[in-house]
Design goal:
Blueprint: H1 9-33, H2 36-89, H3 95-176, H4 181-193, E1 200-204, E2 207-208, H5 217-225, E3 230-231, E4 238-240, H6 242-252
Parallel strand pairs: 1-4
Antiparallel strand pairs: 1-2, 3-4
């Protein structure tokens, strides 16, 4: 395996700052999308949940309908038995047999009464479920409409920015290779620990960009000499001099013109 050519500290600083400029531009592109991808994901979850709820409610309604049909069939069977027992009563020869058939008729009449009561309860449940279903379907329609709008909004933003982001991600990977792994790891660690993602910053008015802590003149001279990697003692960011930052920003302008 060929040994990577040793590059100077200044070249490393320039490569790191270039990497920072690229990654900051990627951050800017992603900020345009804001919370939209998460909103779309949440809406998709809501829609899926509501679809499942509608499906379950329809299953319950069918089960209630099937139960009502079974109860009605039971009523018809009971009526037929009552008719049958009534006919048999006409032909019995003793009171005991007559009373036994009478009890059977009474039992079937109670079965009919119970079934009719249960049918009434089931119909009430069906009405409640249908009302719930209507509300759920309305909510589902609203969510689907909102999701469609948000997806169109996200797709439009992606269409404008995805190609640019893909190019810059590729460039970011290329620039990472220009810097030793140890420095890239440190750069990524710092980027992950600061809110604005800026791990490499220039000196501005005697302080690191975005900071109010003044950097001692001697340290500023060391930074300007570009002889070693220096970090801000307060934020941990890697520091570069303003002139280097300006030169690299101007050089990288062409890369951000799409």
């Amino acid at each position: 395996m060929a040994k990577k050519t040793e590059i100077s500290i200044e070249e490393r600083l320039r490569a790191l700052y270039d990497l920072q400029l690229i990654d900051a531009h990627i951050d800017k592109i992603r900020s345009v999308r804001g919370e939209l991808p998460l909103e779309v994901e949440d809406l998709e979850d809501d829609v899926a949940g509501l679809v499942k709820r509608v499906e379950n409610t329809n299953i319950e309604l069918k089960a209630y309908d099937d139960e009502i049909k079974a109860k009605k069939n039971g009523i018809e069977t009971a009526k037929e038995l009552i008719k049958k027992y009534g006919e048999q009563q006409k032909n019995v020869r003793n009171n005991r047999a007559y009373e036994s058939l009478t009890k059977e008729i009474e039992y079937q009449e109670l079965e009919i009464e119970l079934a009719e009561k249960q049918i009434k309860q089931l119909k009430e449940l069906i009405e409640q479920k249908k009302e719930t279903l209507t509300q759920t379907e309305q909510k589902l329609n609203d969510r689907e409409s909102h999701l469609k709008h948000k997806k169109e909004e996200l797709d439009a933003i992606l269409a404008e920015t995805q190609k640019e982001e893909d190019i810059l991600l590729k460039k970011s990977a290329e620039f990472e290779k220009k810097v030793e792994e140890r420095l890239v790891a440190a750069y990524k660690r710092i980027r992950g620990s600061v809110k604005n993602g800026l791990a490499v910053v220039p000196i501005e008015r005697g302080a690191s960009a975005g900071s109010f802590f003044t950097i001692p003149p001697q340290v500023q001279l060391e930074i300007a000499s570009r002889k070693k990697i220096i970090t801000d003692e307060h934020s941990g960011r890697i520091l570069v001099d303003a002139e280097l930052a300006q030169e690299e920003s101007k050089k990288m302008e062409a890369l951000f013109t799409f």
